[in-house]
Amino acid sequence: MIKKLSLISLFTLLPASYYFAQTTVYAYVKDQDGKPLERAEVDLAQSGDDVTADKIGYFQFVDLQPGHYLITVTRPNFESKIVEFDVTSDEKRKDLGVITLNSNAGTDAGVVVIDDSANDTEDGGSAMQPTVGLLSSGRDAFQNVAAFELGAYWFRPRGVDNRFEDVLFNGVSMSKNDDGRIDFSNWGGLNDVTRYPYENVDNITPSEYTFGNLGGVVYYNTRASTYRKQTSLAYSFTNRSYLHRAMATYSSGLTKNGWAVTLSGSRRWGDRAIIDGVYQDSYAYFGSIEKKFSDRHSINLTGFGSPTYRASNAPNTQEVYDLMGKNYNSYWGWQDGEKRNSRIRKVFEPIFMLTDYLKIGKNSNWINTFSYQFGSDARSRLDWFHAADPNPTYYRKLPSYGDFTADEFRANSQINWNALYQANYINANDMGGVDRGAVYTLVEDVNKDKTFNFSSHFDTRLKDNWKLNINFNYQNLKSDNFRRIKDLLGANYAYNLNAFNNDVQYNLDDPNVQVKKGDRTQYSYELTRNQYALNVSSEIDFTKWNVMASIFASYSEAQRDGHYRNGITRFTNDSKGKSPIYDALDAGIKARITYKINGKNFIVYNGAFFSLAPTLNEIYINPRAVNYLTPGVKNQMINSNELSYIMRGQILKLRLSGYYTTINNATEIARYYVDATDAVGTSYNTLVNEAMSGVNKRYLGAELGFDVKVTSTLNAIGVASVGDYEYTDNADVSTFDDLNGFRGEEFWKGQANVKGYKVAGTPQKAFSFGLKYNSPKYWWIGASANYLMDQYLEFSALNKTPYMYTNPDTNDPYDGVTPELIQQLTSQRKFDDQFMLNANAGKSFVFGKYRMGISISVNNILNNRDYVTGGFEQGRNVRFPDILEDSSKEYPSFAPKLWYDRGINFFTNVYLRF
C-alpha cells in the first residue's frame, strides 16, 4: 500500500514540479521616446524560434526551464540590443521590463571606410597621415557624429590617436606591439560580425574587461550563439579606397543539440578610386562554432582573417600638387599597358581563439580565451644601388630646382618601369658580358609575428548592487623582421652591400653578398616580448550614486636578437645576437562617479592616472642595425580627468563634458629616408631615425553633443568640440643613421625648442550640425554641415634645436640670426579652416521573413579639395643658411609633404536578410 501511494504521489507531483520548473519571460519593446515598437523581432539564442512584439510592443517566451538565456531584439531602422538574463526554478513569471531600442536609421549610410594606406610607407614624420579611430554606433550624439561625420575628415576626439585606443576580441587585445596601434585591416570587411560591440566605453571610462587607455574600449564577443539567426547578403559600391564590396553572413542560432555556427566572408576590390594608381583586392573570413554542454558551460572556437593587397598613395609638396593636381600619386607607373604601384602592402595575419564560458553558482561567470595569431605584413618599395633616385618627385627633378621645366616634369611624372629594367640590363652587360648585379630592385620590409595570448575574465555579484570583475592577460610575441627581394626587375641578383657606407657588408658572417628573389637582404632581426597584466574593477550602485573603480598592474620584457653582424665597424659588436632584456613595470587607477539628479539628469566624473610602457619601436632607436636603446626612453605617465553633465530626456538628449589630460615622459620616433649625393651625382638613400624623449603634452578642451526631437520624425543633432593640444616643455632629441651613427644632444647643441607647439594629426576644434528625418514608412534622409579648425603640420624636431642657428666653426650664431628670424623660419604651420557638407539617405523593406535595405552616404558634397588631412616637415634642412635660402623660394625644395582630402566621395550599400 505504501509503495502504491508513493508511486501515485510521484506521478501526481511530477506535473506540478515540471510546471514550477518552467517560467514565462516577458517584456515590452519601446523606442527612445517611450513609444511601443510593433513588429520588433526577438530571437532567443537557446531556441530556433523567434517571436514578434505585438502592437503595444509586448512579447513573451513560455515554458523556459531554469538557466542562463540571451535574446537579441531587432527592428529595421533601430539598433539591435542584446539582453542576458537568468531563470531560476522558483520563478513562474519573469519581467524583463522595458527594452529600449535607439534609432539608427542613418548608421548603414554613415559607414566610414577605413583607409590607412598613407601609413604604409616610411616617407614621413611620426604622425604621418592620421588613422581613423574607433568606429562604432550606439553611443551618444557626440560619439556618433565624431565617428561617422567628423571622423571622415580625420577628426580625433580629444586629440587621442590610435595608440591610445583598445579593441578586444574575447578579451584579447588587438593592439600591435611594435607601435601600440590597432591594425583594423586584420578584420577589415567583417562588418556584419563586428557591427555591435558587446561593450563600448568612451575615453577614460572604466571597462569591465580591461583597464583601458585614453581613447576608450570596444569589446567584441564572438560567441556563435550571440549572433542573430539569419542569413545576410550585402553589396556596396564606393569610390573611396576600393570600388566594390560583397559580403555574406550566416548564423544558425543555437540548435536543439547545443550547437551554434556563424560564418561570414567578404571581398573588397577595385582599381579606379579617386587617387591615381591606388587599387585594392582584399578578402575576409570569419568562422565561429559553439558547443553548449549545459546551461552553465559552453566552448567556442573562432577564427578570422583578412588577406589584404593594397596600393598606397604618396604625400607631395605643394609644388607637385600645383603641377599635377590633388589626385596625383608618384608611387606608380605604366608597365606593359597596366598601372604598377611600387608601394604595395600585403598583409595576412589570421587569428584563432578558443573560449571557454563557465557559469559558477547564481552570480558568477568565468571566461577564458586562448588565442594564436600568425602571418606576415609586407610593404614594398623601390631600392637602388649606386644609381639615381627613381622617385619622379625627387627634388632635383622638380622645376623649382632648375634642371627640368614644368612640361618636362609632367612628361616624366610617373615611375618609368621600363627604364629601371633597361638600367639593370645595361649594368649587367656593359662590361663585355660580365654578369653584374641589379642597380634597381623592388624590396619588401616584412614582419612575421607569432603572438600567443591567454585572457581570463571573472565577474561576480557580491550583492545585488555590487559587482566585481577580475581580468588577467598574458601575451608572448615573437616578431621576425627583415627585408627581402621581391623583384629583381630583370637582373640576376642584387648586392647585399651598404652603398651608403663604402659598400660594407650588411652581414659579415655571409661571404656571399649576392641575393636572389625571396632572399633576405640588408637587415634581419627578431623581437620578443612577454607581458603579464592584472586588472581588478568593482562597481557599486546606490539610489543616487554609482561608483566604479579599476586598478591594474603589468610587467613586460622585451629583447632584440640580431641575425646579421653589421659591417660598419662601430656597430659590429652591437648588431648580432641577443640584447639585454628591457623590462617595464606599469600600474594605474581609474574611477567613475555618477550622481543621479533624477531619472533624466546625471553628473559623471571620470579620472585616470597610470603609466604606459614604451612600444618596441620606441625602445630600440634603430633595431634594423643595432640593439641600441633610444636615449631617455621611459614609461609614459598619463593623468586624465573629465566632468560631464548628461541629460536623457524624451525630447532632448545632451552631454556636456570638460577634460584635462597630461602625457609626460613620452618618446616620439620619426623614421624617414634622406639622400646624399657624391661628387659624380650618384644619390644614396638611408633611413634616419629621429627621436624626441622626455616629451610632455597637454590636452585641454570641452565637448558638447545634443540630439533634439523636433517632431516625432525629425531630429536635430549638433556637436561642438573645442580643444587645445600642445607640447608643454622642450624635449631631448637624438638621431641615428648608418652614416653618422648616434648624434645626441651634444651634437644638436641642446634640446629641441618645441614648447608651445601644437599636436598635429587632427583638427583641434570641430563643429557639426545635422538634421535627420525618419519616416514611419522605413526610410530616412539626413544631412550635416561640418566645420573644422586648428589643423597643424607635424614638425621635425631637428631644426628646432640650437644646431639650426649655431655655426659649428665658431660655436656662435650665424651672421644675420635674430630671434625674430628664427621664429619666422621655425614656426609651426597652421592650415586654413574648412567647411564640409555630408548627406545620407536610405530605405528598408520587409517582405514576410525577408528584410531588405538600401542606403547611400556622400561626404564632402561641395568637393572641397583644400582640406589638408595630414602632413609633415621634411627633416632635411637643419642649418640656418640652408633653411633661409630654401624659404626664400616660391617653391622650397624641401617644403612640407602633404595629403589632401579626396573631395566628393560616396558609399552605397544594399542588403538582404532572412
Automatic annotation (TrEMBL):
Keyword Calcium: no
InterPro entries on file: Beta-barrel_TonB_sf (IPR036942), CarboxyPept-like_regulatory (IPR008969)
A single cellular component GO annotation: cell outer membrane
Coiled coil regions in record: none
One Pfam family here: CarboxypepD_reg
Annotated localization: Cell outer membrane
First and last residue of the signal peptide: 1-21
Keywords for this protein: Cell outer membrane, Membrane, Signal
Gene3D superfamilies: Carboxypeptidase-like, regulatory domain, TonB-dependent receptor, beta-barrel domain
Top-level taxon in the UniProt lineage: Bacteria
Protein name listed in UniProt: Carboxypeptidase family protein
